[in-house]
Amino acid sequence: MLVAEDPGKPSKCRFAAVKIEGAKSADTVIHAPDRIVIGGLNAYFFLAYGFEWLFLISNHSGDVPKDFPFVGIHPELVMLIRASDERGFIREMRRRMSGELLEKAKGAT
């Protein structure tokens, strides 16, 4: 799609954005992508400047609702909002980072 300069239909490259509200430090954080599985679909998820970005990379439809607010599906931009207080956000970042460090340590042995 990139080489052909053809963005294709929104259903071909599904991604969504979620705004994090309430945790001021989320606006300054960039976190490396994590591979996750959602509804049986492979996806990548990352955090950047107060937004969580979700990119589905599976070719099949899986268990994602048809009306999920992926960018380009609706005529207007629909974005989910996730409330998080500062303490909860920092706790989540620590959990993610400790998981990454454990994975890197396993690979180093």
Order of helices and strands: EEEEEH
Question: Fraction of residues in helices?
Answer: 10-25%
- Strand arrangement within the widest β-sheet reads 2-3-4-1-5
| Integer average pLDDT | 80
> Given the helix and strand composition, which structural class is it?
alpha+beta
Rough outline: globular
Tell how many strands the DSSP assignment holds: 5
Which residues form runs of ≥5 with pLDDT under 50? none
Termini Cα gap: 39 Å
Number of domains: 1
What Rg, in angstroms, do the CA atoms define?
Answer: 16 Å
Largest sheet, described in full? 5 strands, mixed
Structure, described:
- The protein has 109 residues and is an alpha+beta fold.
- It has one domain.
- Helices cover 21% and strands 31% of the residues.
- It contains one helix and five strands, in the order E-E-E-E-E-H.
- A five-stranded mixed β-sheet has the order 2-3-4-1-5, with no helix packed on it.
